Amino acid sequence: MQFLIGITPDVRMSNGQPIFGTEVLELLKRPGIAWEYMQDGSQITLAHAQRYDAICAMTTRLGPDSLPPGPHRLKLIARFGVGYDSIDVPTCSRAGLLLTIAPDGVRRPVATSALTFVLMLAQKVWFKDKLTRSGRWLEKSDHIGTGLTHRVLGALGAGNIGAEMFRLAQPLQMRAIAHDPQADPALMRSLGVELVSLDELFKQADFLAIHCPLNAQTKGLVNARLLALMKPSAYLINTARGPIVDEAALYEALVQRRIAGAGLDVFEVEPTPADNPLLQLDNVIVTPHGICFTDECMQGLAQSAFKAALDMAAGRMPPYVVNPPAQA
Q1: Residues 305 and 192 in one domain
Q2: Do 38 and 149 have their domain in common?
Q3: What's the pTM?
Q4: How high is the mean pLDDT of the chain?
Q5: Distance between CA atoms of 255 and 276, rounded to whole angstroms?
């Protein structure tokens, strides 16, 4: 029997082509390996587990009730991404499934995405774009930006992506601070990053980027109390997960100009409703949980997920396993 890999259909563009290009699919041209796009990949079910040996998944969900008891052949769920809040890990472990992520694919693209927001907010690109389109050139002096030299770049989370953001930002000559109980102190020192308390992070940062995972400890972590600690001139950037930030509290801070602005790639509910009041504000830049979508990012994610599936097919333990006890 061939080792069959299911690829969730949400990786296909409107023209039917995969977002990672067709060249990466060459990796799967191996003896004994077959693959197909799944017909419905919104949620992994027992039927999927009975058909596939491995599933490479983008936004697919797997909840506590997704896999009722029953025989199946599924051995692996390989995420095209690094977050796994959409996958119930205990359910995977109970069903004997490994869950892998793809940190190598997102490290540089998400770090550059955060810096893109920093640069756009600092230069007030969204205001200047509107002025230019409407012929209001004389108003440009009313929208003076923020110089970055010696400003404070902060990160809530200084792991894979946060560390890369600081590495890329070094030529900007910003002061770097972070809050992350799991951060590697030696790595932070090598990057010139000062580890600070959560409150100090919000008090000191001129640009504060969120790079932590969504879990029970971080859901709603960025609340009204922390936002109230920020400088009126500070900007909040979220390219991680929407529910880390209390959107209602963020809206109040923005609309009352208690902070200067925000760059948001993620929202509490996705797709975010068109009537989300955040979308009406003139001090917010928004993108559809896809600012990091580049050819580099998508190819890296696909390579990581496909290689994990090939490792499983060959009887090897793939890298970046979230739940190694599943194989105990």
Answers
A1: no
A2: no
A3: 0.91
A4: 95
A5: 13
Q: Are residues 93 and 11 in the same domain?
A: yes
Tokens of 144: 């003076």
Q: Which residue is listed with tokens 């792991």?
A: 159
pLDDT at residue 325, as a whole number: 64
Could you confirm whether 247 is annotated as catalytic? no
Q: Which of 30, 270, 296, 316 is catalytic?
A: 270
Is position 268 annotated as part of the catalytic site?
no
Specify the pairing of strand 207-210 against strand 152-156: parallel
Active site residue 241: yes
Task: Name which residue leads in pLDDT, 196 or 94.
Answer: 196
Q: Residue 305's domain is classified under what CATH number?
A: 3.40.50.720
Task: Please state the φ and ψ torsions of residue 34, each to the nearest 5 degrees.
Answer: -135, 155
Mean pLDDT lowest among 137-146, 178-187, 216-225, 232-241: 137-146
Which is the catalytic residue, given 79, 151, 241, 268?
A: 241
Active-site residue (options: 107, 151, 179, 289): 289
pLDDT in tens, 60-87: 999 998 988 888 999 999 999 998 999 9
Domain range for 230: 106-286
| 181 shares a domain with 271 | yes
Strands of the chain (E only): list them.
3-7, 33-37, 54-57, 76-79, 98-100, 152-156, 175-179, 193-195, 207-210, 235-238, 261-264, 284-286
C-alpha Rg value of the chain to the nearest Å = 21
Per-residue pLDDT, 69:
83
